[in-house]
Design goal:
This protein is of the alpha+beta class and 812 residues long. The chain is 52% helix and 18% strand. It is built from 23 helices and 20 strands. Helix 7 runs antiparallel to helix 8, helix 10 packs across helix 16 and helix 12 crosses helix 16.
Amino acid sequence: MQARFNKGDGAIFLLALVGLAVFLFLYPRLFPEAALRMEVAKEEIVEMGTAFVEELGYTLEDYHRVVRLEHDADQLRYLERAFGSFKANGLMADSISVFHWSLRWSSEKVSPMIGGGEKELEEQLERLFGDIRLSVDLRGEPIGFEFKTKKEEEVRPVEGSVASEEVDRSVAEGFAKKMLGMYGGDWSFEGGIEKPGSTGTVHQYAWKLRHKVAGEEATLRVSVRGGLVQSFRKAFTIPEPYVQKKEGEDWGGVGVVILFLLFFILVVIYFIKRLRSDLIDLKSGLIFGVLVLLGWLVTYWTQTSSASGEPSWAMMLGFVLTAPFVGGGIWALFSVGESLTREVWAEKLTTLDTLRRKILFPGLGLTLFRGVALVFLGLGVISILDYLGVTVFHGHYSLGDEPLHFWTSRWPSLYVVGKSLLSPLYIVVTFCLFLMTVLRRRLKKVIWVLPILFLLWSWVSVPIPRLEPFLLRMGINGLVGLLFAVFFLRYDFITVATGGVGLPILFYGVAALGVGSGVFTVHGGILIGLLGMILLLAFFACRGEEPSGEVVPYVPDYLQRIYEKERIQRELEIARNVQLTFLPRRNPEIQGMDIASLCVPAKEVGGDYYDFVEMGPRKLGVVIGDVSGKGISAAFYMTLTKGFLKSQARGLLSPREVLVNMNELFYENAERGIFVSMMYGIFDLDGGTLTFARAGHNPMILRHFGKGEAEELTPPGIALGLERGDVFDKTIEERTILIAKNDVFLFYTDGLNEAQNRMQEEFGEDRLIRLVDAFNELSSEDLLRRIQQEIQGFTGETSQHDDMTAVVVKIL
C-alpha cells in the first residue's frame, strides 16, 4: 500500500478549507445555537429557581427535581421565517427567549423509564403525580411558572388568608410589579377574570407590553387562588399568518421506522446466509461493537443522569437491557458488510487491514487527513444547503434531542463524543460498508448506486440541528449522504468513518465556544482539541515507515478456511485422478466374455477396488474389494491392496492362496482396526469353470441361463487384516463351479445393496437378485446401467453415503 498525495487530494483539501471557512462564516448567521448565551450556569439557575419557588410559598423538601434546556419551536419557526436566520438569532439573543431552562419538581421520586431520558421522565412524573414547573430564561429571569396536581385538596392557600378577589388581586399585583420591574419596558394592566374551581375560585390577571417586539405582542398572565400564585407566563403572541403545524413529522417518523425494519430484515437474511456458508468473520466486528457500545454507554449515562443529577440503578438496568441490541446490531452489521466488501471492493478495507499489523504508517495519515477534510467539507456543504433551504425554500430549524442534551449535560464534551461514536458509525457502516456494497453487487454500473443511496440516506440525519419541513430535510440529508458516498467510492471505509465521527465533534465544539460561558468554552476547547489530535496523529503517521512488501496482508479467518478448503479440494481432485489410474482404464476384451464395470466413490476418493488379472487369451481373474471406512484413508489402503494383489496374482496361484498371502501382508502393514473384504475368482473358458474364494465380501450373484432364479454364492471366509493368519487360513474356502453360455455373474460392494432412500430403507440384496433375474438377457453394460438406474430411482435425492462398485461378467 503506497500513500501518496496527488492532485485530487490537493483539490479536496483546498475545498475542505473553503468548506470550513463557509461553516465558520455562516454558523452565527444561520444555526439557532449561535443565539445561545449561557450567562448563568445551570447550577446557579437551579439555586435561583429553587429560591424563587420557595418565595412563592411552596416547599420543595420532598420533591424530586428534573432540569433540562428547552426551546419554543413555534417561536423559532416564526422568527426565522419572518426575519431570516441572521436577524432571528439576534432577536433570540437580545429580546425573545426562545431557549429557556425548565425546572420541574415532583412530590414523589420516580426513576427514569428504561431506555428513556429527561423528557420521558418528566412525562412520567406529570402523569403520575403532577408537578411544579418553572421556566427561566438564559439570563436567570423566571418567565413561567405552573403548579399542577391531580388532587385538588393538595392546593395549599396562604396561612390565614381569605380566598377573596381582593386578596388574590393584591397578591397578583405585587407579584406582577416585581416581575415587570425585572423585565423592563412599559406595561399596562389589561384586567382579570374569574374561573370557578372545586376548592375555590381562580383569579387570572393580565398585563401587556405597550409596544411590540419583533412584531409580537408580549403579555404577562398571573393566576392566583387563595392568595397563592398558581401560575404565571410571560409570552409572545405569534402573528396569525405564521401560526402553523409542524410538517411531515408524523409520516417522517413512520418512514424511518419502516426503513429500519427493512434494513434489519435485510441484514438478518445476509447474516444467516453468510454464517451458514462460513463466509463471515465474526471477530472483525468486535472492535466496532465495543466502540459503539461505549458511545451508547456514554450517551445513555450523560443524558439520563443530567435529568436528576445522579445516575440510578434503573438507568444502569436500562443500559444492560439495551446494550445487546445496540452493540450486537453493529457487530452483525459490520461483520456482514465487511465480508461483502471483501468480495466486491476489498481495497476499501486496506487501511483497516493494515492497522491490524501496524499502528502508524503513511497510509493511515493520509486517510485521516482525508477524513478530516470530509468533516470540513461536510459542514461547509451542510451550511450552504441549510442557507439555501432557509432563504430560498423558507425552511426553519427543528432542534432535536441532541442539541438540548448537549447544553443540559454536566459533561457536554463527553456526551458529544459518545453520540459521535454511536449515530455516525451506525450510519456509515449501514450505508457505505453494507448498503453500497450490496447495491454494487447487484448493479453493473456504480452510477446507479448513487440515486438509490440518495433516496435511502434522505431518511436519516447526522446528529446536528435539522431543517424543516421534512421534504426539505430529506433533500439535504440525501445530498450529504452522496458526499459521503463519493468519498467512500474514491477512498475507503476509515475515511468516511473519520468524517462521520468528526463532523458532530467539530460542530458542537464551535457551538460551545460561542455561548460566552467559561464551562462551555472548556468543553468546546476539548472537542476542537480532539479533532486537532486526529490531525496530529495523521501528521506523525505520515512521517512513519510504510509497511514493507514482506508484511503478510491480513486475511480473515473465514477466507483462510475457504483457501484451506479449496486447497484440500484441489488435492482431493488430484488424489481422485491418481486413484482412477489405479483402477482399470478399460475392460478386458476376452473372446467369449462380455465384461462391464462401475466405480462411483461416495467422496472424492474412496476405498472400493476392482481389477482384472489377464492370465491368457481364454483365462481372466476378476477381483473386487472394499476397504473399511471412506475417504483418503480408505483410498490409501485400497492402493496398498492393489499392490499386494498384483504381486501375488502374477504367480498363477489359486484364489485361496492369493487371499491367504494377501492377508499376511495386509496384517503386517496396516493399522489394527483396518480391514478389507474381497472376492477373487478366475474364469477359465477352455475348462468351462470359475474358481473363486471370498474374504468376508458380499456374495457373488450368479444367474445360470435357463436354470431358474439367480442365486448367491457365499463360500466361507473372513476379511483381510482381521487376524494374523491362522484363523484366516482355517476359515477361507475355495470353490469351483461350471460355467455355460449366457451365464451372468455380478460382483459388487455393499454400496449397492445398502443404498438408502429418505426413509432410511436399504435397497437390499433381494432387489439386486430380482434385477439380475429380470434383465439377464441384456448385455453386461446394459444390465449394469439398469441396476444403477434402479438404485438412483430408489434413493431419489438422498445423498450417496458409501462407495458403489460393481463388475458384471456374461459368458458368450
